[in-house]
Design goal:
- It is built from 13 helices and no strands.
- The protein is mainly α.
- It has two domains: about 190 residues, Growth Hormone, Chain: A (Up-down Bundle), CATH 1.20.1250; about 220 residues, Up-down Bundle (Growth Hormone, Chain: A).
- The relative contact order is 0.14.
Length: about 425
């Protein structure tokens, strides 16, 4: 791959995650504080993203992969998304907001797969070259979250303005990306889209257990994305009453989670080789439990170290379970069905798992919120995903037997 292509693809990845990071982690706080939304309404808004993730493979597989160049589809979707975001920022009724955010997510969700597909089509050695491009996405998320924090606009419609402007820029620049013509021809069947050939993996009990655990652990993951910002904001308001919430720089603090993600991503190769997939997955699940206990019992004064630990554990939680899970899936699937297997696990986690999690997270928050005072018992909220993570961990330890020595090994330790 020549350096010009690498620069273009890196800019694409940076802008892609800038669009996403500007609003996603702040959506719950925005809807709660600005729109006066209930927990259920916030959960439904996040569920809209999961609905779109379920629909995205059908759009990409039936249309983008077969009839149009990927970079042109990426450009059109981002330009449409920018227009929707422009109108979205003026919606003030939570019920109407749901339909607008769903409409936007239907344009955004396919771009996640499209950007990866475009990058992978133009690199000769994916294992070595793709991480160097993908890391710009994480750096971008850190940058935009810090921007939102420094501006103090996490609860304002400015987050959608930032996203809209960036989407428009990416939409225009997409047409200057390397030409990526359709990878396949002719119509795709429903069975192909959902990865039917990968269903053979369920004959392996360990993979089936991993698959179920991946869906279930997305429920706690949804709690983090939905309520971490709001929970931290409330913690600082309680500890420092009368202080302008914008000065707490919650988004800046949360960006430490993405920084830890980069660090643990680098450590993952060593850990995978020395510990094996089962132990790494167990560490990842245990980290989720510790994280939610820290969120539940941490305070913004004497107990602030617990809140910082909860944020910094993001790297272990995400990399040691989800990234390792993608490696494990790749290992189990082999060359012939690895693409379908990865598509299946993505559909199950970001689609089904996070849909369930978003709905549950919204209802749980309402359950622990006093309607008279609007005060939320965040300890009660965070103990729910902690308990779910405990159950998943116990089931995983008991029933998951495999432990491949490395991603490139065919040995299975029973």
């Amino acid at each position: 791959m020549n350096s010009f292509n690498q620069i273009r693809l890196s800019i694409m990845m940076f802008l892609q995650f800038f669009v996403w990071g500007a609003w996603y982690g702040q959506l719950g706080k925005y809807m709660t504080e600005t729109l006066g939304a209930s927990g259920e309404q916030v959960g439904n808004a996040y569920a809209a993203f999961s609905i779109s993730m379920i629909a995205a493979p059908f759009f990409v597989g039936m249309l983008a992969d077969r009839y149009f160049s990927a970079q042109k589809v990426l450009g059109v979707l981002n330009l449409l998304g920018a227009v929707i975001l422009y109108f979205l920022q003026d919606v003030r009724e939570p019920g109407n907001f749901f339909w607008m955010i769903l409409l936007y997510c239907l344009t955004f969700a396919p771009t996640i797969a499209l950007t990866s597909s475009i990058a992978l089509r133009h690199i000769a050695n994916p294992e070595k070259q793709f991480p160097a491009i993908r890391v710009f996405g994480t750096l971008s998320w850190i940058a935009v979250v810090n921007l939102v924090g420094w501006m103090g606009v996490g609860a304002e419609s400015t987050i959608f303005q930032i996203s809209a402007i960036t989407a428009a820029i990416l939409g225009v620049l997409s047409f200057a990306l390397p030409d990526t013509p359709p990878a396949a021809k002719g119509p795709a069947s429903f069975a192909q889209i959902i990865g039917k050939d990968a269903f053979v993996l369920f004959k392996d009990r360990s993979f089936a257990i991993f698959f179920i655990a991946s869906i279930l652990v997305c429920i706690p993951l949804s709690f983090y994305y939905t309520w971490a910002n709001s929970s931290l904001t409330d913690a600082y308001k309680i500890a420092f009453p009368g202080v302008d919430a914008a000065t707490f720089n919650i988004e800046n603090k949360m960006s430490l989670g993405q920084a830890s993600e980069v660090i643990f991503m680098l450590l993952l190769t060593i850990a995978y080789r020395r510990l094996g997939v089962k132990n790494i997955l167990i560490i990842g699940l245990a980290a989720w439990i510790i994280r939610f206990l820290c969120f539940g019992y941490g305070t913004a004064d004497e107990g602030s170290w617990m809140l910082y630990l909860a944020i910094l554990l993001h790297g272990v939680c995400f990399d040691f379970f989800f990234v390792t899970g993608f490696i494990y899936t790749d290992f189990k699937a082999g060359e012939k069905i690895k693409s379908q297997a990865q598509g299946l696990i993505t559909l199950a986690t970001y689609g089904i798992g996070m849909f369930i999690g978003s709905v549950v997270a919204g209802k749980v928050k309402d359950e622990y919120t006093d309607t008279a005072t609007s005060l939320t018992n965040w300890t009660g909220v965070w103990l729910v995903p902690a308990a779910i993570a405990v159950i998943v961990l116990i089931l995983f330890i008991i029933f998951f037997r495999e432990q491949p020595a490395s991603a490139g090994s065919n040995r299975q330790d029973q």
